[in-house]
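Handout, section 4.2: multi-component inputs.
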Amino acid sequence: MSLAKPAMRGLLGKRLRFHLPIAFALSLVAAAAFKYGVTGPRKQAYADFYKQYDTTKEFNNMRDAGVFESVRTTGE
Amino acid sequence: MLHLTTGRVGCLLSKQAVVALTGSGARMSSHGHHEVSDSVDMSQPMYWDRLDTPLPDRPWKDVLDSTDKSLKQKEKGPWTALSKEEKIALYRLKFNLTYPEMKRPSHEWKTVIGGMFIVFGITGLVVFWQCHYVYPPQPPTFDEEWQAKQLQRMLDMRTNPIEGLSSQWDYKNKQWK
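Output:
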């Protein structure tokens, strides 16, 4: 019944040496995924929208629909 | 469940509180004095079976008969002289339950889950009764017609036209994309 003496020291260090690089890598992956998956497409969507945006046309559409209180619909 | 709740009570609390929470239980064995009721004499060292506090104040068997006494005498010598059965007997003199025995699984979870579902059922009935008898009449804003008009107004206002609601509506063909 002679077992090997278990590790008594350096347990936290061992754990950190294993887990910290993984933690950093996963964090970077998460940040990159968010940047390329969410913020990138979102900025692009906004840019594309405003490239084709005709302010006056949209205003007139909204006015004709009757959503404004300060501007009457055309033809009144 | 008792073991779980009393696990919170560590050595820091007085033993009185520990026993009050654990109840007297099967803690007396071969005890010299006979307890009339279930109350424990707190002025004496106590025995307990606890996972978190391993070494109780007194051994399990206080009152030793002659065989036990001779075994205890033998224990004073070199332990290599003890046989396996003697070592186990000495352990059983000192302790009531082993750690695996303390950790043995029980059927308590079935009671817990069952009780949980019963309470869910009763709560469901209460909620149903409440919906029928307590709630005031629904505001008009929940009607189908109102909701349709509301949605139309939101589209007219071009709410969230880039990524949200109005971006999903096809204004030319008057339908969802």
